[in-house]
Sequence to fold (237 residues):
Amino acid sequence: MHRFVRILLPTCLALSVTQCYRVGPPGGGRDTYSGGSSQASPSGGKISMSRLYREVNLKMDLVPRGTHGRKVLRPMKPRFITIHSTQNYSADAWKHSQALKNGALRSPKTRYGNRIGYLIWHFTVDDRVAIQHMPTSEQGEHADFHGPGNRLSIGIEMCEHRGSSRSATIERTAKLTAILMKKQGIPLRNVVPHYHWPRFGKHPPNKNCPHFLMDNGRPGKKWRWFLGRVNSYYQKL
Ligand SMILES: [Zn+2]
Fold:
């Protein structure tokens, strides 16, 4: 357990940690920003919601109601979707799900910090699967403490463990985001990186997350490319 906690704690979401740890480029995680290299969908025409769901390979593995990150249930009508990356090079989506269910992802509860003492978000995506950890009608703890990022947004974490395909993870995330936009009536302009939400009391307040979709630590060309991938799926639905 202790080893597991140690492995999983230094994630992007460990908001108590001043800086995400850096281990250099993940092995096998090729950066492909040109787009289209791993599309499973036809480039033109419509795609059904059920087909997109199948391609996302969405699994439900909810943290039990009333425990750990769902200890306090706070209703939410989501208006944004916040994209993160784990900065954890050891854990895939299932390992993150297990850690959330075990209560292994803690964060100090402070006046301006984490509200419940645990981290939690809605979905974790890797190159094989997307896993849901909590209903989208509940607030998570993944973005900006008491701020609107936590109160109003669905949190999606992208895995980046060694040996995984980053391009496959990004495409799956783009598909899941398009599905959520459609289901929740969320416009593309409200699909934002974690960077978008300043964190009170943190320096810098705007986090370089998801770091591999930021340019010089902030949204730029790579982020616009990602939004283009999301929009391409959304327009086909
Ligand atoms: Zn983040």
